[in-house]
Amino acid sequence: MFAAGQARRAPGGPLQAEPGADAGPAAPLGATLFYRPRDAAVVLGMSRTAVFRLIKTGELWSIKHEGYRLIPASALLEFARKLEANAQGSAVA
Asked: Which of 12, 27, 48, 65 could potentially form a cystine with 31 if both were Cys, beta carbons 3.0 to 4.6 Å apart?
C-alpha cells in the first residue's frame, strides 16, 4: 500500500496523511495536508475563481505536482491569519 510518511488522496477529496505516517507535530494523524483549489475554496468560503485569483496575485501559496495544483493546509492557515490581522488593523484605525 503506502510506505510510512507517504500521503494518499481520497477520490474527489483533499490529500491526507496515511494512517501511521509521521506527519509531525503541526499535522495530527489523518489531517489534510494539501487541498485542491475547489476544496480550498470550500474551506475559505469563496469561489474557486477567487482562489485562483489569490494564487495569481501571490496572496495564497500553492504548488504544482504532476499537473495538479495543490494548496498546503499551512498556506490556508497563513492566509486566514493575514486576513484576520488586516481586519483587526483596519478596525483599530
From this structure: 27
Q: Is the pTM of this model over 0.90?
A: no
Q: What domains, with CATH codes, occur in the chain?
A: 33-93 (1.10.1660)
How many whole angstroms from its chain centre is CA 87? 21
DSSP string across 48-82? HHHHHHHHHHTSS--EEETTEEEEEHHHHHHHHHH
- Could you report the per-residue pLDDT of 14-28, keeping only the tens digit for each? 666 555 554 445 555
Backbone angles phi and psi of 3, in degrees to 5: -80, 155
Sign (positive or negative) of CA dihedral 38, 18, 33, 5: negative
Q: Are the beta carbons of 76 and 43 closer than 8 angstroms? A: yes
